[in-house]
Design goal:
5 helices
């Protein structure tokens, strides 16, 4: 508005000599000079107004806060690697005896919340606080660490002792390792392990949002 008023004032100053009745006419060369000067001034005013408007548009930024797409891209960040250690005994019994294997089991499990189901409950731009609802962490993948899983003992009883060959040994070991792999996954769904994975996810998200100047509060969905 101020620039518009200035533009009007300058325009009036330019045309004033033509509007004033009874004023003596200026020589032509003075009229042309006056016209050139005021044209330059008016052009400068227009350029200044355009520059200020462009600067204001360029310097104004708005942000609605973190988006659900950004949160879902953090899937690997919030996963927790849990090491499982256990001792398991596997028995293979027959009518005339049995064979027994004792294993020290070691494996790794990846746990994390399914971020495809994440929901933004609220986003307070004034406080820069975002509240997110996440499902409880679950098993993403698991594996038996064969390099650290050891056979402690292999024993026989009954007529297995006199059975020739390694059929009994092979059968019990195959079963023992298969059960050990399943035990790794089962051990990861204990409340204590899920709690550790939840705490890891909260810490990872807190660090991520803090880098952007936000605080995050996690609400875990009821199962």
């Amino acid at each position: 508005m101020r620039l518009l008023a200035l533009f009007s004032l300058l325009s009036a100053s330019f045309f004033l000599p033509f509007w004033t009745s009874g004023a003596p006419a200026e020589p032509l060369h003075r009229t042309i000079s006056r016209w050139i000067v005021w044209t330059i001034i008016l052009a400068a005013v227009v350029w200044l107004a355009w520059t200020l408007a462009t600067h204001r548009r360029g310097s104004t930024t708005t942000s609605s806060g973190p988006t659900i797409q950004q949160i879902r891209q953090l899937a690997e960040l919030v996963t927790a690697n849990v090491t499982i250690a256990d001792v398991r005994e596997t028995n293979l019994s027959g009518h005339l005896g049995g064979v027994h294997a004792l294993l020290i089991v070691r494996g790794d499990v990846l746990l994390g919340p399914d971020l495809s189901k994440a929901k933004i409950l609220s986003c307070d731009q004034a406080e820069r606080l975002i509240m997110i609802e996440l499902p409880r962490p679950k098993v993403i993948s698991y594996r038996l660490d064969h390099s650290c899983t050891k056979l402690v003992s292999l024993s026989h009883d009954g007529l297995w002792v006199v059975v020739p060959g390694d059929a009994g040994r092979t059968a019990v070991l195959n079963r023992a390792y298969a059960e050990a792999e399943q035990s790794v996954a089962a051990a990861a769904v204990k409340p204590s392990t899920i709690g550790d994975a939840s705490h890891h996810a909260e810490q990872a998200l807190a660090v991520f949002f803090a880098m952007a100047g936000w605080k995050v509060q996690i609400e875990w969905a009821a199962e």
